[in-house]
Amino acid sequence: MCAQEMRRELDSMGIMEVPADAYYGGNVERARRNFPISDLRFNRSFIKAIAQIKQSAAVVNKDLGTIESDKADAIIEAAQRVINGEFDDSFVVDIFQTGSGTSTNMNANEVISNVANEALGGGLGTRTPIHPNDHVNKGQSSNDVIPTAIHLAAAGAINERLLPAMQELEDALRAKSAEFWEIIKTGRTHLQDATPIRLGQEFLGYAGQIENGRSRAGVALAETSVLALGGTAVGTGIGMHPEFAVRVIARLRELTGLDLSESPNHFQSQSTIDGVVQASGSLKTIAVSLLKIANDIRWLGSGPRAGIGEITLPEVQPGSSIMPGKVNPVIAESVTMVSAQVIGNDQTIVIAGQSGNFELNVMMPVAAYNLLQSIDLLAASCENFARQCISGLEVTSAGPDMVERGLAICTALAPVIGYDSAAAIAHTASVTGESVKEVARRETDLSDEKLDEILDPATMVEPSA
User: Fold this and answer.
1) Residue 190: active-site member
2) What is the value of pTM for the model shown?
3) Each residue of 430-463: pLDDT tens digit?
C-alpha cells in the first residue's frame, strides 16, 4: 500500500503534517488525532449553518471595510460551496472534542480558507491570501459562533422539516378521525372496558396531541431563533466591530427567512445552553406523544384473531422468518424506537446543560449532535408514520360487535336505577357472561323499549343529562 502523500503546515503550535489533498488544515488535523473517539460527526444542517455564518460575516466585514473586498468575495464564494454541501467530507472532527466546539469552528475556517485560496490560484495549506483566523473568523470567536450555529441549524430544521412533517401527520390523523367517526366501540380506561367512544374520537385525540406538539415545536423554534453571535470570547464582544453582529444576523434572517434575533444578554447566551435544553424538552414531549399514539395503534391492530383487532394496519413487509403469513406493526414500532432515542437524547442535553462553567458551556458539540438528531428523527418518523401507517389504516367490525357486550355501558343505567343497582347488574353480567341489557331486562322493571333507549351506544358518546 502506498503511503499517503502529506503536506507540512506551520501553525501556532509548530509543524503538523496534513494529508496533501485535505481542505482542512493543521489545527483540524491535531483535533482529528486528539479525538479518535467515535464515528459521530456534525450533520448537514450544522455544516450549512456554520457556513452561512461565515459567509454572512464576510459580507458584513466587506461592507464595514474590515476585510478587503477581493478577500471577502473569495470567502463568500467558498462559503457558498460549503453551504451547497460540496465539502461535507472535509468536516472530520469527532463530536466528542473540545467542549466549546473550537475544533469544528476551525474546521469551517480552514476549509473555507483553503477553498478560497485554491480558487485564487494558491495551494492548499498556504493560509494566504485568505487566512482562516484573520479573515474567515474575523469578528468572531468559537464561543459565540458554535452556539449560534447550533441555534441556526436547529431553527432551520424545525421550520423546514419538523413542522411540515408534524402537520402531515396531524392531517392524516384528522382524516382518519372523520373516516372513523360513525364507528362506535368500547372505550378503555386502565386497560378495562369503559363507556362507548367513537373510533373517530380516539383519533381526534391523537390529532390533538400532534396539534399541541406543533405548538411545542414552535416554542423550540422561538428558543433557537435567538442567537449568541456578538459576544465573541466571553460575552463582551472584544475584537468585534460594534455593528458586526446586528448586521450579520440581519443578513442571516434574510438568507434563511427565519425570525432571528441577537441575544439581549450575551453573558447568558454563552455561559449556558438553556435555549437548547428548553428546545430539547419540547422535542421530548413530542416524542412522548408519538410513543402513546404508536403504541395505541399497535394495540388496536393487535391480532388479527387473538388480539383487539379493531383496526388493520397496512401490510408493508413479512413479519417473521419462521411464521408464514405473520405481519407485524413495524412502522409503529419504528416510531416507538425513535421516541426512545429522542427521550434519551434529551437526558444527554440536560446533563450537557449543567456544564456551563462561568463564561462558557463546555459540552456544546454533544448537545448540538443530540438536538439536531432529535429533530431529524422526529421529522422523518412523523412523515413515515403518516404515509406508511396512518393513511392506510382500515376499520374492522370487532369494535362495534363488542359494544353491547361491554360492561361499562351500565353507566347509562346509574342515573335511572342508581349506582349500586347498576353496579350489581354489571357484576352479574360479568359472572354469567350475559350482556348488561339481558341482566337489566331480568332485574329491573324497565321495558325493552326503555332499555334500548337508555343503552343506545350512540347516546353515550357525547354529553347527556
Assistant:
1) yes
2) 0.95
3) 999 999 999 999 999 999 999 999 999 999 999 9
